[in-house]
């Protein structure tokens, strides 16, 4: 059903987590574990999905618009841009526009390069992230001593969406995607799209000797640090987690999937 606009009530203002789809749910899971007292609002912007196909100007305009709209109805104390593509485009704009802290996503190349024992690491991401100059800068800054195998895998975005809706990926096709890492004997592979950690159980099933690295833990620690003064005001037993999604059509499968993950409600919202 369509959500009505009203302020979230309670002693602790929520954190707003946004993505063009379900990928940010992987970030939300880490945040929930690190700050169980913190209410959250999750927005899957299916009305503009996927961000990776849009120009930087389109992404900047859209994300600023939806943050303004959501925060007007549901005042948030912190904003998490849970999308690699959007983070490279909008963080400075949002920080200039909003008083709340804004946290973004950076591919965990530094983490992988620090922990590799073979000096061979991988990057599994969307084609846009693989080609982006920002990614090359991260590799130069933190993984200069490593061989870096880059694989663009747009299919995994949809497979992550399918998983939320109760469907498993094609394991043979998934193995084909990660084959370059197996052949190179990489011991650390960075999941450079927030959709991809949703598939971690399947990745470990196919390649248990690889450490599949994502940014979720680091983001959750950052959120916990920024909001540590609020912790005493919240109570885990009264914490609410609300999921919203944009788009023209009701998505009952996604609503059920979000509820199964632990949201107290999942609703379509007009933006």
From TrEMBL:
One of its GO terms (molecular function) is glutamate racemase activity. GO terms for biological process: cell wall organization; peptidoglycan biosynthetic process; regulation of cell shape. Gene3D superfamilies: 3.40.50.1860. It catalyses: L-glutamate = D-glutamate. Pfam families: Asp_Glu_race (PF01177). Its EC number is 5.1.1.3. The active site is at residues 83, 193. InterPro entries: Asp/Glu/hydantoin_racemase, Asp/Glu_race, Asp/Glu_racemase_AS_1, Asp/Glu_racemase_AS_2, Glu_race. Keywords: Cell shape, Cell wall biogenesis/degradation, Isomerase, Peptidoglycan synthesis. Substrate binds at residues 19-20, 51-52, 84-85, 194-195. SUPFAM superfamilies: Aspartate/glutamate racemase (SSF53681). Pathway: Cell wall biogenesis; peptidoglycan biosynthesis. It is an enzyme of class 5 (isomerase). Belongs to the aspartate/glutamate racemases family. PANTHER family: GLUTAMATE RACEMASE. Provides the (R)-glutamate required for cell wall biosynthesis. HAMAP family: Glu_racemase. This is Glutamate racemase. It comes from Hahella chejuensis (strain KCTC 2396). The gene is murI.
